[in-house]
UniProtKB/TrEMBL annotation:
This is Corrinoid adenosyltransferase. It comes from Paludifilum halophilum. The keyword Nucleus does not apply. Residues 3-165 form the Cobalamin adenosyltransferase-like domain. One of its GO terms (molecular function) is corrinoid adenosyltransferase activity. Keywords: ATP-binding, Cobalamin biosynthesis, Nucleotide-binding, Transferase.
Amino acid sequence: MRIYTRTGDAGQTSVVGGRVDKDDIRVEAYGTTDEVNAFVGEAMTRMDPEKHADMIRDLTDIQHELFDAGGDLAQAGRKRQYRVTAEMVTRLEEWIDRYESEAPEIQYFILPGGSPLSSALHVCRVLARRAERRVVTLTREQETNEEVRRYLNRLSDLFFTLARAANARNRVGDVRYRRDG
């Protein structure tokens, strides 16, 4: 199979149900979700296989689910069964609760940083927020799986929690926001 097809040279791409412009909100939504997935992979390269085995396992599942989310978002017109479900959102909430117990109670606003791993997970968090914003726009304009929006919302919360747990595991403090700078 060739990587290049030349079918997108005119500025359009295929989605389930037809072709759309490459800057269509549907393409923006699943493309930004793909960006999140790429940065999750990057964050995982910063993890110690023993110290972060549970995070690696959970993030590997998330990578597959983000791929499924992109597939759900790529459906225009002809529909197949969606893959992202409410149960997946509930599971993210369970993971948030588990990882949150590792970090100290939040007493102040936290800036991205601390350890390199925490910083990478914060990048995942802000990208998930951007993907969520693209999906919000998409759901306002076109039909799509609204569970993807909920999933991305909870996923950004999980990345925040994972970033704090990573700092705690590495015995690095969170970076405290100081209004006076």
